[in-house]
Design a protein that fits this description.
5-stranded mixed sheet; single chain; 29 strands; about 10% helix; 7-stranded antiparallel sheet
Length: about 475
């Protein structure tokens, strides 16, 4: 009997934990909330007023009655534009149109009811931005217009996190891009308010988008597939526990009742570029980035779909590659024309005669290594040109299903692959390169259940897989030396 009670208690604890997790992580999704109060013309609170909010893109509605203090709240709303209406017997209907809700925002919409026929309507168009008094989080939102129209080198929307106050690069460059060849394209290394770059939380549509090896982000979709993103830089909610530096949440586009999409093609080419001052030739660059997006309804007001694809093709052979190496005389040990003075460690630090190292003291490994390094130009630099191709693709698909006013589902898949084929010259170790491929993919499924006017449960599962293979085809190995 005791064991049976223990099992029941354990099951109850697990269920409560799952419910708490749904409530806890729900606001970390691509959502916001609308709240406010309803008063009459004299400023008295109006309890029991019927408040209806409607997503203008999908037609989905949610309804709640104001409480005893005349207040209401709609949590876990998908980002987008909304119309809000308020009705109560003996008052004119009040409507607020084009309420724009962005990720992780709390928008206050107060309604004032006037005495009159309920068939009459008082309409308010578009609200001005208000200060969020419901949460202490500092949130910076970049909308879709800025994502598309601001210049982005490489078209990585995560670059726009640098627009948020307190955000600086932690990668030694002004963009925060991680430059290791095995890292995914678009991986960022940024610091928020002095935090470590590995102390930030990255999410895509509310699901984790993290590289667990480095505790940094996996790649985000291309700008045409992104609706907006928010950068939370201080006082994040408990849903971001474990990573206190800040949070970046990217929200992808969804299908709506209206068919929408675009096609694009971005080109950079040698014929349009000036030659680098230090290059002996043009860079032979051919960079093409093209794709499309398409979204719309499968079943109006019920089932919506969105898909996007981007292909990247880069062909380049920069002519300004150079490395400092030993001259022919220095390879014979003769540094007599060099201002550097050489001392012999085997003679208590006495100088080498004529600043020349005898060949008997040469390292056989070093001599062989130098045989793979061409003789330099008179200034000591060896110059070379190597091909640097890059092939990448991104694909995204998303389904939104409104089962009823109480249940809705979302499913999204995203794949981002990058491949850099290469060929290292077999006789020039300076031109040896490590390249390969970095493939990443993720999927998330979420369910929102509006249990009643005061309880909304959101459950979401996300999975991600990342693979990188980096190698070189240069024939020399450590064993060969």
């Amino acid at each position: 009997m005791k064991s049976y009670k223990f099992v029941r208690l354990l099951v109850l604890v697990v269920l409560i934990g799952l419910l708490d997790a749904g409530l806890l992580y729900g606001q970390a999704r691509d959502t916001g909330s609308v709240f406010g109060s309803v008063t009459d013309a004299q400023g008295a609170m109006v309890p029991g007023a019927r408040v209806v909010i409607t997503n203008t893109a999908t037609g989905q509605t949610r309804t709640v009655d104001t409480d005893g203090n005349g207040g209401y709240v709609f949590p876990l709303l998908a980002v987008g534009s909304y119309n809000l209406s308020v009705e109560h017997a003996g008052f004119r209907k009040s409507e607020h149109r084009s309420v724009l809700l962005q990720a992780n925002e709390n928008i206050r919409v107060d309604a004032r009811l006037e005495v009159g026929n309920v068939q009459e309507t008082v309409t308010v168009e578009a609200l001005v931005a208000t200060v969020d008094t419901r949460a202490a989080t500092l949130n910076h939102t970049v909308d879709q217009k800025r994502i598309v129209e601001l210049p982005l080198n490489g078209r990585n929307p995560a670059d726009l996190i640098m627009l948020a106050p307190g955000v600086t690069s932690a990668a030694g460059n002004n963009t925060g891009d991680a430059i290791a060849s095995w890292r995914p394209h678009g991986q960022k290394q940024v610091s928020i308010n002095g935090s470590r770059n590995t102390n930030l939380r990255y999410t895509l549509d509310g699901g984790t988008n993290m590289d667990d090896l480095e505790n940094e982000n996996m790649e985000f979709p291309f700008p045409d597939a992104v609706q907006e993103f928010s950068a939370q830089t201080s006082n994040m909610g408990v849903e971001h526990g474990g990573l206190s530096g800040g949070a970046l949440n990217v929200v992808t586009k969804s299908g709506t009742n209206a068919l929408h999409g675009d096609a694009f093609w971005f080109v950079r080419n040698t014929a349009l570029n000036a030659t680098n001052f230090f290059s002996r030739q043009q860079d032979l660059l051919k960079r093409n980035q093209f794709g499309f997006t398409l979204g719309g309804p499968f079943i109006k007001n019920k089932l919506f779909g969105f898909a996007g694809y981007q292909k990247l093709m880069i062909r380049a052979a920069a002519g300004d590659n150079r490395n400092l190496t030993l001259t022919a005389a220095e390879r014979r040990g003769d540094f007599s024309s060099n201002r550097i003075v050489l001392f012999d460690p085997l003679t208590n630090g006495q100088r080498f005669p004529n600043n020349t190292i005898p060949s008997s003291r040469f390292s056989r490994a070093a001599v062989k290594l130098l045989s793979y390094s061409p003789l330099p130009d008179p200034d000591g630099f060896v110059r070379y040109t190597i091909a640097q191709p890059d092939n990448g693709l991104q694909g995204i698909g998303k389904l939104d299903y409104v089962h009823s006013n109480k249940h809705n589902f979302v499913f999204r898949v995203f794949e981002s692959d990058s491949n850099q084929p290469f060929h290292s010259p077999p006789d020039n170790i300076q031109a040896a390169r490590y390249f390969g491929f970095q493939d990443g993919r993720s999927a998330t499924v979420g369910h929102t259940y509006i249990m009643n006017a005061t309880t909304v449960v959101h459950t979401q599962f996300t999975g991600a897989h990342q693979l990188a293979n980096i190698a070189t085809d240069f024939p020399l190995t450590t064993a060969d030396l």
